[in-house]
C-alpha cells in the first residue's frame, strides 16, 4: 500500500473507533464556587516555585467548537449472506426493536457507547499561520526556576550546572535541505561556538551604529557596513562549517569519546552525552545493528543524527506519523541536510526530494514504511544510492504485542531492509516496550540480544498521582488546575479519550478563565498546527487533547500532564506523561480514574475482534476464482467490504498485510486507490480517441455508459491490457490536461495481485483468527494492567507513612518498571462479572424483536457492550434498549450465551417452519 499512514497507529487496537455520530455531550457542570482542594493531596517539592498566575483575563474567543453530528437516518442492514445463524424473516423495520426512550439507564448507556478516540491523521502543514488572538500577558507570569535538574542528566540525581542552550540548530523554518546558516539561529539559541558568539555581539554593536549612520543620512558608509556584515557572516559560517568538518574528520579517524563529545559540543552546544547516547552512537558507527530503549525526551534523535554526519551513505528514518517526521526534520541541526517523503506532499515536492536524493544533497531522509517499500523508491536505491543506516523510530510498532502495532511496520523486516535497500546497519529506537515487544522487534530486525541498550524507561522527574473520580470529573479537573502546584504551571496538557470531550472540556476551562483549546485529529490540519504553535509560544496554557497531540512534541517546559480518563496501557501512559518535564524540571502528572470509563474502554477494546467465520468469508472473497488470474490486479472496495464482513478497515489491512508478509507470500499489495472512475469526454469522440490510444480503447471495452458518462473499474482496465493502475491514472490525467476529458473517482480500495492461492482457506482462517484473537486479548490485558496500577496507587495512598504524592509516585513507578521488565501485575476489575441471570433471557428477547437482522455471537456481544461495528453501527443500534446493558459482563461470557441462544433460535424457527 502506498498511502502513508499518519494515524496514531492504533491499528487492531484497544482504542475506541472514531464515531461519526457522537451523542450530545453531557451537560456541563457549573463552575465551582468555593475553591476545593485537589482530589489527592500531592507532595510538592518545596523549591517548586512556578510563578503564580495573576487575575485571569477574558479568554480568547473560541473557534474550535464542533456540534456533534446528527445520526444517520436509514439503517444499513448487514450484508451477511451466509452466516452461521440466519434470522431470515425480512422486516421493513428500520430501527431495532426493543428501543425504549423511557428506560432510565438509556442515557447512561448511550453515553457509554460513545466512540471516537483518535486514529489521527496528522498532516501538519508547515505553512500554517498562527492567527490566534493573543491572550493578555497577565494570565500567567513566567515561572521561576523550580528544583531544576540539568537536562542532560535525566536519570541522574547529581547536580551540575545547567547546560547552555544549543548552537546552530535550525530555526523555525526547519531544515528543509538547505543549510540554515543565515543568522536566524542566533535568535533562539545563544551560541556556544566562540568565534560566532563574539562576532554576534559585534553585530549587535554594529547594528546600533547602522541606525545612527542611517539617521545621519550617510548612505555610502551604510552600504560599506552592510557588505562588511555580510562578509563577516560568511566568514563565520565558513568558520563554523570548517570546524564541524574538522570535528567530523576527527571522529572518522577515531570515534573516541573525546572526538564525539567535541562534535556534540560544536553542533548542539551540549557539554556531554546523556546516558546511553554515546554507546548507541559508537555501536552504529561500528556498523552494529542496535536496539535502543531510552525514556521519552532522553535524546534518542541525536543517536542517529551524529552518525548521519559521519557515515558516507544516506540515513533513512522510518517514522509512523507524518507529523512526527515534520517535527524531526525541523529539529535537525542545520549542518545535516534533511528531506521527507510522504503522501501528503504535492507530487512536485516529492519529485524535488527524489531529485535531491539522487544528487546526494539529502543526508537524512524521513519516510513512512509504506513509502520505503514502494517499488519506485526501492529501485532508486538499488540503482544508485547507498544506505548507511536505517533508523526504525517508535520501533515497538513492529510488534503486534505493543500498544501501537501498525501493520505497515510488519514490512520492516531485516531481511528486506538488508536485501532491498542494501542497508548496512539498523538502529531501532523506542521509549516504551515490554520485554515481549522488544523480543519481537529484535527478532524481526535481526538485532542480536547483545546489541540492546536499555536504560530505565521512566524519567525520575515526575510526580505521579491518581484520584478516584466520577460524575464531576470536569469540576475535579478545574479544581486541580486551580490548586497548588498546578495553578503555578504555565503549560499543561489534558489527555482525554474522545474528540467530543476535548471541545467540551476546553470550553469549560475557558468559561472558567483558563486559556485552553481542544485538539484532535478531526480538526483541520491548519487549526492543529495553529493550536500547537500557540501552545509552544505560551499563548495557550492548556491543550485538551486526544492521543493525536504530543508525539514528537518537544516543548521543554510542559509542567503537567493530566489524564482525564485512564489510558489504554501503561505504554500509552508513559508516552503521554513523557511530554512533561522535558527540561528536566520536576513535573506533575495526575490521572482521574473512574471505573465506568474503564469499563467503557474495555468494551471498546473488543471492537477490532473478528470471528473465524468472518475471516473465512473474507479470505474466500480475496482469493475468489474470479480474481485468481495471474498478475491480475484485484481490488477490495473498503467501505462495502468492511460492511459485508463486519470488519474495520484496519483489521482488513492487517489480514492483507499478513497475507503478503507472513510465512507464505500469498499476494503483493499495490497502492491503495479510488477504483471507480466516471469519465466525461469533451473534445474528441470516445471512438476517435480509442483509435489512437490503447488505454482509452480498454476503457471503452470495460466501461458502461450512464447518462452519457463512462463508468469503469480502474484495476479491471489495467488488468485487461497488462499495465499498472498508476499508468491508467497517469493517462487519464494527461487527457484531462489536454482538455479531452474530465473525471471523478470514488470508492477507495485495497489493491493487490495474487501470487499464490492458499490450499485450504479453513486452516488459514483459523490460524489468522487465533492470531487476531491473541492481539485482542493482549489489548484488553494492557488496559486491565493500567487500571490495576491506577487502583493500586489510589489504595496505597491510605496505607503508608509517606506523603500521599510520594507514595503514589513510588507505587506507579514500580508498577511501570515491573511491567516493562515483564512482571505484569493485574487484578480483574471489581465491577466485572462473569455471570448474569438475565443475560440469556435478554438475548432471547433481543433476537425475537430483531428477526430481520443476521447476527453473529460477536455482533450480539458488541451490542450488549454498546460497541458499534461496520455492519451494526452505533447510529442505528444504540437506539435499542439492550445497547451497552451488559458492559460489566465479560465479553466472552456474552458471546457464549449469544451462541447458545442463536442456536436455540434457529432450531425453534426451523421447527416452526416444518
Ligand atoms: N546530551 C544532551 N544534552 C542535553 N540535551 C540533550 C542531549 N541530547 C538531547 N538533548 C535534548 O533533549 C530533548 C529531547 O530529545 P529528543 O527529542 O531526541 O528525545 P526523544 O528521546 O526522541 O524523546 P521522545 O521519545 O519523547 O520523542 C531535545 O531538546 C534535545 O535537544
UniProtKB/TrEMBL annotation:
Residues 473-631 form the Helicase C-terminal domain. It is an enzyme of class 5 (isomerase). Residues 1-166 are annotated as: Disordered. Its EC number is 5.6.2.4. Residues 17-37 have a biased composition (Pro residues). InterPro entries: DEAD/DEAH_box_helicase_dom, DNA/RNA_helicase_DEAH_CS, DNA_helicase_ATP-dep_RecQ, Helicase_ATP-bd, Helicase_C-like, P-loop_NTPase. Keywords: ATP-binding, DNA-binding, Helicase, Hydrolase, Isomerase, Nucleotide-binding, Nucleus. It comes from Eutrema salsugineum. Residues 281-451 form the Helicase ATP-binding domain. It catalyses: Couples ATP hydrolysis with the unwinding of duplex DNA by translocating in the 3'-5' direction; ATP + H2O = ADP + phosphate + H(+). It is found in: Nucleus. It comes from the Eukaryota. Residues 38-50 have a biased composition (Low complexity). Its main location: nucleus. GO terms for cellular component: chromosome; cytoplasm; nucleus. GO terms for biological process: cellular response to water deprivation; double-strand break repair via homologous recombination. Belongs to the helicase family. RecQ subfamily. GO terms for molecular function: 3'-5' DNA helicase activity; ATP binding; DNA binding; four-way junction helicase activity; hydrolase activity. Residues 90-128 have a biased composition (Polar residues). SUPFAM superfamilies: P-loop containing nucleoside triphosphate hydrolases (SSF52540). This is DNA 3'-5' helicase. PANTHER family: ATP-DEPENDENT DNA HELICASE Q4, DNA HELICASE RECQ FAMILY MEMBER.
